[in-house]
Amino acid sequence: MSGQNEAVFQKLRGALGAPAPVRKLLITMRAQSVTRMDLAVVRILLAERKERGIYVSVDRPDKQVLSILEKHNLAGPGEAATDLEPVNKKLFIAKGIFSPAVFIAELLSRTENPRSGPALDRELREMRFIMVDNLSTLSAYNGPKGIDTCFGHMAMLLMRYPSMRFIAVAGRESFGALGSPARSFFNAEVDIPDAWLME
Amino acid sequence: MVGDTLERVRSGINGMDEMMQGGFAFPSTVLVAGSAGTGKTTFALQFLAHGVKDGEQGIFFTTLSEPTQWMLRFVTHFSFLDKDTFGKQIKYVDLGPTLRKDRDPDVLLKYIDDQIAEYMPQRIVIDPISVIGNMIKGDYRMFLYDLANHLKNWRAVSILTGEVLPKEPYPVEISYIVDTVVLLSLGLTAEGARRKYLEILKMRGTQHTTGQHLMDVSRDGITVTVGLK
After folding, report:
1. Helices A34-42 and A3-16 sit at what angle, rounded to 10 degrees?
2. Which pLDDT score, from 0 to 100, does residue B102 have?
3. What are the sequence ranges of the domains in chain B?
4. Hey, is the C-beta of B9 within 8 angstroms of any chain A C-beta?
5. Is B7's CB within 8 Å of A64's CB?
């Protein structure tokens, strides 16, 4: 690995391992690097930090995300799932197309189910992150109200599960289209230099 | 403003980005159509080579036109192509063997998916897409629809090149499933000289220049002169 790449990974490791006050981390870069950055973040969270969590893609089918992670040895057989049941997987890949708000609302509602809710609630309390990839594309599918709803639901989830943190990967140029409340939602930000993809 | 939430990647075609708000929408699918000799393969290679300059990776899928090594031998005189990028930043994949062996569209899609998943390029070319219609079993239009969806989900700009048949202005079936249609054509000037032209027929989410514009192919690749007809 080159010096430039190693420096970026160190920066990422530092941000992803930051102490508790950092619960809402935004990682920005040029849009062409987002897919590779998703993998880099998952690699650090799962393989290095041994954390469990949720992966939500705003613009890709959950099964495709799973196949990419498998292809890159980030989710071995039985380690990730696309159906959320209390199954003790390392990673749950959620359907988040158009907005993670729909998924989060469904998730919170399922924890209220008297029969299956408690087990799901226990599962979620053990999770350390919810990651949303390509967050900038929210603005392609949602107006200001929809974007507010998404961040509102995310805040609710984080409040209910204090051990979980929110990590968003987003294209730098189009992130502005989400409006200033989106940026102020985060309490830490890392920007990845364009040269990162070149190495 | 139209397209203000879309990211853009530069096409690499000299003069073309000014015609389309700075570049192709990222991600998107583009049909580059034209008859033989209009510069479709050159367009596609120039697009991939420019991606390398911007630090991106590309995949060039050939179908059944000619073996990759022969195609490359004829295009390496272009100054924009760096031979050291072959097989590294630009990966060449021949779909011919898969097409001949298994004419099943699902098998072909899975093969394409696997190649892309492994390499994760930001730029993809399938050259030419139009011959696949005669090769696969089943519904070609459904295959095209699935292919376009798969390609967009990969978050890349994908160029599909298509042969124009004598009785149609461009490959109509393919034009429905792509975001952008670029037509390359030949024409005669009033003095009888043969000229090449580029026209953006369709571009979703983008304000683009319309009409035919003079296109020149030199050692430096394709250059479009907007306004010259």
Report:
1. 60
2. 80
3. 7-225
4. yes
5. no
CA angle B170, B69, B45 (to 5 degrees): 45
Residue B1 has pLDDT above 50, yes or no: no
CB contact under 8 A, B120 and A171: no
**CATH code for the structural domain at B7-225:** 3.40.50.300
Q: How many other C-beta atoms lie within 10 A of the C-beta of residue A192?
A: 21
| Residues B26-70: tens digit of each pLDDT | 999 999 999 988 999 999 999 999 999 999 999 999 986 666 677
ipTM for the whole predicted complex goes beyond 0.95:
no
B153 touching A (Cβ < 8 Å): yes
- Measured between beta carbons, which residues in chain A are less than 8 angstroms from residue B118? 71
Cβ separation B120–A36 shorter than 8 A: yes
- Our count of domains for chain A comes to 1
What share of chain A in percent tops pLDDT 70?
96
Provide the domain limits for residue A71. Answer: 26-192
- CA A131, CA A53: separation in Å to the nearest integer? 8
Residue A166 domain flag: yes
pLDDT bracket for residue A1 (50, 70, 90): low
A61-83 pLDDT, tens digit per residue, is 898 899 899 889 888 777 888 87
CATH number where A170 lies = 3.40.50.300
Residue A86, pLDDT score: 57
Residue type, B125: V
Which residues have CB under 8 Å from B228's CB, separation 6+? B213, B214
Sorted by sequence, the CB contacts under 8 Å of residue A73 that are 6+ apart come out as none
- Residue at A108 is within a domain: yes
pTM attached to this predicted model: 0.88
- Chain A residues within an 8 Å CB radius of B6: 140, 174
Position A9 in a domain: no
pLDDT (tens digit, 9 = 90+) per residue, A117-153?
999 999 999 999 999 999 999 998 899 999 999 999 9
Beta-carbon count within 10 A of A19 CB: 6
- Is the CB of A139 inside 8 Å of chain B's CB atoms? yes
Please indicate whether, in this complex, the C-beta atoms of A197 and B55 are within 8 angstroms of each other: yes
Q: Whole-angstrom Cα distance, residue A38 to residue A197?
A: 13
CA A35/CA A39 separation, integer angstroms: 7
